[in-house]
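User: What would this chain look like folded?
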Amino acid sequence: MPTAAAPGGDGLGEAVTIGVSIHVPEPYGSRVQDARAGYGDPLARSIPTHVTLLPPTETHTGALPAMERHLRAVAAAQRPFRMLLRGSGTFRPVSPVVFIRVEEGAQECRVLEAEVRSGPLARELAFPYHPHVTVAHGLSEAALDNAYERTKGFTASFEVAEFVLSTFGADGVWRPWRGYAFGRP
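Assistant: Here's the prediction, encoded as structure tokens.
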């Protein structure tokens, strides 16, 4: 697991940045990454295609066991659900992001996000939670316009039966670390 030295030697372990997400399965995940790379997004290959449940969150390795127990309990209480991704959306002008809309499964994502972001993972968000799949971020207006137009016809449907805890490395790469299957204690 990628880590950095924790400040102050406080006995909490080393600092680590984590995130929790629903991964978009193949062949859709690669299609979105390929499109993202084609729009010029430098993060395209660094981040698995996903719907965020917990954004990048800094913690310490000593806190991970309690967080993992929490995530197991959240997953155990869930049931698989269908997700339908369809069409494009954007957060502009607030944020330079173009995304694929979560047309079906959005309410389940909201419930999951609230459950995940509680207990030992409670934290404030910079923006209200809105489930989506990013296809372009921080690019020129022309590239964002292109991504928005070309994503309008995207459709993917699949069953969601787990979420994934990932770590964020110093190299900027998200690495899936552990999956949590729904309905298992």
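The longest strand covers residues 50-60. If you want, I can go into more detail on any region.
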